[in-house]
Amino acid sequence: MRTAIASVAGRRVWDSRGRPTIECEVMLSGGATGRAIAPAGASRGGREAVDLRDGGAAFGGLGVDRALAHLNGEIAGALRGLDAADQAAVDARLIALDGTPNKARLGGNAIVAVSLAVLRAAARAAGVPLWRHLAGERPPRLPMPQIQIFGGGAHAARRLDLQDLMVVPVEAASFDRALAMTAEVYRAAGRLMAEAGRLHGVADEGGFWPDFASNEEALETLVRAIEAAGFRPGEEVAIALDVAASELGAKGRYRLALDGRELTTDGLIELLVAWIGRYPILSVEDPLAEDDAEGMRRFTRAVGGRVQVVGDDFLVTSAARIDEAAAAGACNAALLKPNQAGTVSETLAALNAARDRGFATIVSARSGETEDVTIVHLAVGWDAGQLKVGSFARSERMAKWNEGLRIEAALGPGARFAGRSALAPARR
Ligand code: PGA
Ligand code: ZN
Q1: 302 lines ligand 1 (CB under 6 A)
Q2: For the domain bounded by 5-127, which CATH number is listed?
Q3: Is the peptide bond before 425 cis (omega within 30 degrees of 0)?
Q4: Would you state the CATH architecture of domain 144-422?
Q5: Which residues contact 79 (CB under 8 A, 6 or more apart)?
Q6: Does ligand 1 lie within 6 Å of residue 366's CB atom?
Q7: What is the pLDDT of residue 428?
Q8: What is the pTM of this model?
């Protein structure tokens, strides 16, 4: 067997915020290698796989020495000899070895880096690009991107309450065209900020720093940027929001600090529904907090027939949480973050659960990222339909958009693009 795992090794590398993270390198008996780096979130869901950090003074407590020791010791020993081509068996071994429900013992950061590196090595051994390795019988399809123009929330020192103001270039007929349209909007947004004397660099995911007097002013400015770029808002380029409401409050009390308002669940729903009426918003992520299932249900009932309602912190890339949400009528789309689940197999299980329930699916990066582009291959190979990796600046973001262009080129003239039909609700 040329795909037996011969060695697993980890090292400390650094993410896009200059924080320590884990890179894993796997070598197979036939000589194929695979490498992957764990990303890190800043607005994490309470039920996510847990990153193991060292605590203490060094690097603000974010050191990964303990997680690395687990990787190079226990994990490497347990995986040696397993077949890398059997991802499910490798991931089951990792889950059993950790033994906790949230990967807290060995570290979700160690486990996800290993799981992704094994996947990459298996593709290398098969002699095909990862996206093709994953596609199997299902024809691959380039995803519709959601691309951040203004960053906010935990990614911008809470200067704005809303976390992500993104665009979806709905009229694009290819991935290449979708990026070109976004590039024009991003430039126009930068120009508007400069003219207003409000251009102060970018937030964590590369979106412009949100120097606005209110949350609604950010929405107005985004519409003006779409127009200034020469597009019809809504028809050619629409808006997607990530409210990341778990950062605004809990248990039905939400605070919009910039607007000086405190809202109940119904108040926040009312505000979002009003914005959906005034602005060309076609997707809203985490409109209510992760503990506000009833609010998520009410919001989905109010707008789910015409707007994509995405669960991120609310669903945490968990097949069980997705099944529960679908049964309750909360959300109609699932964000998929491999490090929220902790392994490739659990991420795929979440995708399949979402698909079975008629949910749209969006593969997503984290706010702490690196040059690793594996998630782009997951989005294409699994035909997730949508991809979210932050803004249109900073190389940890651009590496991913550019990888999508390479895959589109490799597929040639027959390359399929998900287009606007990838968004929920399905009949859009
Ligand atoms: P995070 O946020 O990676 O900082 O957790 C990204 C998101 O909420 O989509
Ligand atoms: Zn989110």
Answers
A1: no
A2: 3.30.390.10
A3: yes
A4: Alpha-Beta Barrel (3.20)
A5: 5, 8, 90, 93, 94, 114, 118
A6: yes
A7: 53
A8: 0.98
